[in-house]
Design a protein that fits this description.
The chain has 173 residues and is of the alpha+beta class. Helices cover 24% and strands 33% of the residues. The chain has a domain at 72-169. The chain has a 3-stranded antiparallel β-sheet with strand order 1-2-3, with no helix packed on it. The two termini are 63 Å apart. This is DUF4189 domain-containing protein.
Length: 173
């Protein structure tokens, strides 16, 4: 009988410590109450108790991978005329390049245009220096214009301006 009592007390104490509480655990509030050596009551929050299913909590989050199609953007320009065009939110890189060239060439009036930059799931912006040289920023949202200006000023040390504000091609959830 003594052994059974010792075993039961041991199991009861294991149950208390399983949730990280060294005192009285209050499951309704998720708090632990202990009384220190001077008689003061200390209450603190603890995590939910763990179950006995291999040490994992019962409400373990699941990882679910979702296939989200990529989106593409491209920028084309005719270096002789300086006329440019772009495309955003396209389903494929080829489609983005074709649309950017089509936009740049203005129905054949501005041929030939060439792709100078493209982006997958990101943003593009274009800066130009006083000589007409163009620089691209392609990065995360909100930073493409700053990147384009930085590249322009670093390489040419000239007056630079944004000629195409940031445009993004991001996946749709």
């Amino acid at each position: 009988m003594k052994k059974l009592l010792v075993v039961l007390l041991g199991l009861a104490s294991l149950n208390v410590y399983a949730n990280g509480c060294g005192g009285e655990y209050q499951p309704a509030t998720g708090t632990c109450r202990i009384i220190d050596s001077s008689g003061r009551q200390i209450i603190y929050n603890v995590g939910r108790p763990q179950s006995s299913n291999n040490g994992y909590a019962q409400n373990q989050p699941r990882v679910v991978n979702i296939e989200v199609p990529s989106r593409y953007g491209a920028w084309a320009s005719n270096p002789k005329t300086g006329i440019s065009g772009g495309a955003l939110e396209m389903d494929s890189l080829d489609a983005a390049k074709r649309e950017a060239i089509k936009t740049c060439e203005l129905g054949g009036k501005n041929k030939p245009c060439k792709i100078y930059a493209w982006v997958r799931n990101g943003c593009l912006a274009v800066a130009q220096d006083q000589n007409g040289t163009i620089f691209f920023g392609s990065t995360t949202p909100g930073l493409a214009e700053a990147e384009a200006l930085e590249k322009c000023q670093k390489n040419r040390k000239a007056q630079c301006r944004i000629i195409a504000t940031e445009g993004c091609s991001m996946p749709k959830f």
